[in-house]
Amino acid sequence: MVKLKFYILVVCILSVSGSLMHASGTYDADFGQRCRDYCGYYGTHGRTNWLYGVFRQLARTTAGMQYEDENVADIFTTIKSNHDCNDFTLNGLLRMVYLDAGKPVMTAEMKKNARDCILDFKYWWDDARRDTTYRCYHTENHQALYHTAELLAGQLYKDTKFTNGMTGREHMAHAAERLLPWLDYRFRFGFSEWLSTYYDVEVLLLTNLIDFAEDPAIRHKARNVLNLLCFDLALNHKDGYLCGTSGRVYASSLVTGSHNTSPLFKLLFGKGTYDREEMTGAIALATSGYRCPGVIVAIANDSAATFTNRQRNSLNVEDAPLYGLSFDSELDCHLFWGMQEFIHPKSIAMSKTISEKYGTWPYGNYDHYIDLYAKEIALTGNAVDRERFALSEANIVTYKTPDYVISTALDYRKGSRGYQQHPWMATLGPKAVIYTNHPGGNNLRQSPNYWAGNEVLPRSVQHANVAICIYNIPEGEDRRFSHAYFPVNEMDEIRQSGNWIFGRKDEGYVALYSSTTPQLKDDFRGIRCDIVADSPANVWICEMGSREQWENFDSFINSVSTANVETDGTDVAYESPSAGKMTFGWDADFSVDGTLMPLRHSFRYDNPYCRCPIAPDTITINYGNDKLTMNID
Questions:
Q1: CA–CA separation, 442 vs 425, rounded Å?
Q2: How far apart are alpha carbons 92 and 100 in whole angstroms?
Q3: What are the C-alpha distances in Å from 246 to residues 4, 233, 419, 502, 522?
Q4: 158-217 pLDDT tens trace
Q5: What kind and span of H or E run contains 176?
Q6: Which positions of the chain have pLDDT values less than 50?
Q7: Distance in angstroms (rounded) separating the CA atoms of residues 546 and 561
């Protein structure tokens, strides 16, 4: 059995009442109490079964409640089922086992069942046992969940032979070979699933590594990556609601006023809500020894600040050689699969090799695309990436003020087939959010759907408080229109003037323009929130403002509604009364007052608190006299 020193420390920290120190020395008098409160809340409100039941049981025992026997049985059934996403559950079970070593509460039967599950689990696609049901190994979060589980399982049973014939030590080496690069990629390039609902499960795996990994290098790297995830949250929220553009988002985090990360915000920064029943990372955080550095907490809680954050996440596959990565390396291809770039012209050959070698098939028709690319190259000298799931380089701009936030991924894969990508968003409050999409179907649990993701991606830009988003939907699409989510009932005031619709929430203002006459109506759920632009080609403009800037709502409306807007198909010229004259188009450059605006960032982060190059070895975050410096090694 693994030495107990790392995770007994976690239990000791959690048993301390009162205040706790942040890593940078800043005192947070309420963090410990928030952790206890959340465990008590989730222990009675969390989901009881399926993938998430284990986290409810973790919360219950931490809060001093009893296990629920029937729900405990579901944990083992879920793991043994090989159901997709059961790596979530296994990471929860491993956390339970490690914490139990310091504060025993598991029964002998539970321990035996846990041991059986851990020894029998299939930890990666190169295990010779073939899957009988679909399992997603390949996305950014799943890769690290599997590797983390394998590492921690190997530590528990170093000299024991697992069902697949490998010893625990062999599993540890196998996991570390994959996990160390994964952590380095996140430090250097950020999350490909940028600002997404999956930050919750990233927190689960990262706290598991920080609390339980024996290797100090892994613990160090995991802590850095979790610090940077928290920094992402601090830079891109409104009142504890993650409101930036996103690589992967679900309708349940857009139209409910509560995001999957909202409990993380509440725990880390005292803002947000606990009201989510399917949580993983928040419970891991509430039962962890990790403390968010005080400099990041201070940035998150500076509600008076106005600033622009520019950050670049992920990378383009074709740029991989610039960073020492090879298209012919199986392990390097894991990065491309984490970006869901399975059929990129540069990565498709290795993708096919991996699928044929290990029987894991995110795509079953590689040859179709290989032939298509060959024909394109013969005709034009170039092949176009056709991956709809792709999470390639995202150049993010977030403009954050006390009254509103607006955020955009600049010029992100225009005209490509889309999935869960969320190109832009404006926020006046957790329930008062405004964005556009090219809708899919009405089933909000599928992607893309009516309110999340895009069937065809638009072209979007932003300067300061103004975003422009252009749709150019090709023939053959089932729905050849775009629309906006504009929740009327969450606004304090609504006005319409010509093609502009205005909203006020508290002291924040929003103006939304559609070049096609906008039709405000109820959506299919009967909620008045749907602004439809019934045209395949449409220009949307969003300008934000506040009482501090305009003195009153009427002044904002008068200035914006009388501003000159000229559109010609998918080209637009807009004379913003606050941000200057902007010109942009589907195929045209973006300019402000005659100055060409770059659509690709030169820095990993560029904001008042941090400026660091792409693929850095060191990242420093400053706030006042407080400073946090992180080195990749």
A1: 21
A2: 12
A3: 39, 12, 11, 24, 25
A4: 999 999 999 999 999 999 999 999 999 999 999 999 999 999 999 999 999 999 999 999
A5: helix 168-189
A6: 1-27
A7: 16
